[in-house]
């Protein structure tokens, strides 16, 4: 125990000295150094988080009032982000302790490849086992991914041409949420890697239906579109986690940006690229986007500027913009990379990134789950950390070399 405390203490001293050096340099260090510092910090911070989470559950968020990490079972939609984040850390640092923790969490998650309770198999199984297979190419990982894709397709509704997000309830008969765009990566990847071709066909059909029904003329997105699943008719359009039905819930815009950029990667359908660029324009030119480019929880939230930020939306945006830049001309590429870099620098600053040993072990502070539901307000969230590190990897791999 004493040795562990000493390791954390000296790690903290080292990281703090690195931060002070950066501040002495005017706070504008090179992106290579910034990325290196973030991963070294993540390596130590996620060991803190690991000690705070029992072996049979996943971290969800942190309650500062109780100084406790809140956890979830493996059926929670965010269950794949923790092992996925560990794998991103290992990919950069090659720390065996981090890999051991990732393997343990993959072990408790693997059974969810059969889950059909909602649409979140992509978040759960591709962000985790997808990264594991990318790094290690173990056949059992691919089998897990293939099985998860088959499970996800059980939620496809041919008459409505969508994957149903949640089961019917008193509020909605056939809800489809913009978040569902993210789960299409699982289906598309499996089809492109020896799996059933119908999976990608379903992904494309869902993306097309969402393109038709989810977006307003200014390219902002509703959160929920409720369908009559027997006829495909749109029953209602709402924004459940945003400020109002006609408001632009920030993370919803991020899911759309990332989702259509990713679907262009798999299909090269110019409609998807155009849609992604239009969503990017809505976000980046929005008068309510703060100077540090970390959005308020809703672009139309009451009380701006005195309301909550959502670091998770900024992290998703940064990662998405870095990929969108890959498919853009020189002018747009410069805009997207510059914006992503500013988002990354903001998230890496003291305003959003925790100090070693604090924040329950999570990297980023100040994310928002759902204000209307009084859930996860101004707290760390696993997917904020995940997409932040994904953005760092993308910047390193695509833009430090060029």
From TrEMBL:
GO molecular function per UniProt: chondroitin hydrolase activity
Keywords attached to this entry: Hydrolase, Signal
Entry annotation: catalytic residues: 120 (nucleophile), 179 (proton donor)
Residues where substrate binds: 120, 179, 239, 251, 255, 370
Gene3D superfamilies (alphabetical): 1.50.10.10
InterPro entries, per the entry: 6-hairpin_glycosidase_sf (IPR008928), 6hp_glycosidase-like_sf (IPR012341), Glyco_hydro_88 (IPR010905), UG_Glycosaminoglycan_Hydrolase (IPR052369)
Tagged with keyword Repeat: no
Residues spanning the signal sequence: 1-22
GO biological process terms, semicolon-separated: polysaccharide catabolic process
One matching Pfam family: Glyco_hydro_88
Similarity field: Belongs to the glycosyl hydrolase 88 family.
Protein name, UniProt field: Glucuronyl hydrolase
Organism: Pedobacter steynii
């Amino acid at each position: 125990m004493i040795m562990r405390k000493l390791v954390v203490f000296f790690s903290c001293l080292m990281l703090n000295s690195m931060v002070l050096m950066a501040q002495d340099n005017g706070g504008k260090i090179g992106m290579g150094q910034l990325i290196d510092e973030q991963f070294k910090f993540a390596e130590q911070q996620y060991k803190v988080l690991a000690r705070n989470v029992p072996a049979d559950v996943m971290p969800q968020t942190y309650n500062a009032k109780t100084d406790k990490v809140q956890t979830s079972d493996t059926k929670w939609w965010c269950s794949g982000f923790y092992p996925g984040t560990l794998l991103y850390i290992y990919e950069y640092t090659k720390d065996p302790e981090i890999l051991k923790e990732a393997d343990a969490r993959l072990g408790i998650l693997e059974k969810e490849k059969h889950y059909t309770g909602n649409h979140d198999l992509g978040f759960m199984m591709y962000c985790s086992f997808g990264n594991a297979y990318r790094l290690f190419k173990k056949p059992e990982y691919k089998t897990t991914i293939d099985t998860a894709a088959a499970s996800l397709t059980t939620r496809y509704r041919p008459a409505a041409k969508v994957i149903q997000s949640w089961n019917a309830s008193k509020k909605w008969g056939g809800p489809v949420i913009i978040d569902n765009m993210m789960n299409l990566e699982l289906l598309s990847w499996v089809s492109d890697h020896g799996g059933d071709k119908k999976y990608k066909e379903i992904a494309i059909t869902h993306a097309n239906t969402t393109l038709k029904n989810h977006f307003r003329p200014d390219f902002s997105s509703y959160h929920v579109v409720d369908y009559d699943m027997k006829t495909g008719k749109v029953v209602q359009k709402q924004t459940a986690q945003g400020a109002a039905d006609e408001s632009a819930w920030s993370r919803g815009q991020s899911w759309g940006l990332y989702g259509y950029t990713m679907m262009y990667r798999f299909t090269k359908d110019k409609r998807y690229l155009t849609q992604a660029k239009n969503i990017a324009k809505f976000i980046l030119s929005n008068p309510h986007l703060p100077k540090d480019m970390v959005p308020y929880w809703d672009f139309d939230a009451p009380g701006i500027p005195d309301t909550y930020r959502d670091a998770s939306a900024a992290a998703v945006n940064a990662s998405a913009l870095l990929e969108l830049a890959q498919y853009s001309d020189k002018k747009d590429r410069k805009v997207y990379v510059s914006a992503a870099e500013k988002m990354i620098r903001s998230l890496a600053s003291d305003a959003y990134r925790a100090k070693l040993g604090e924040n329950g072990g999570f990297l980023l502070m100040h994310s928002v789950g759902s204000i209307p539901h009084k859930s996860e307000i101004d707290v760390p969230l696993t997917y904020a950390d995940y997409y932040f590190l994904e953005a760092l990897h993308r910047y390193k791999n695509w833009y430090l070399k060029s």
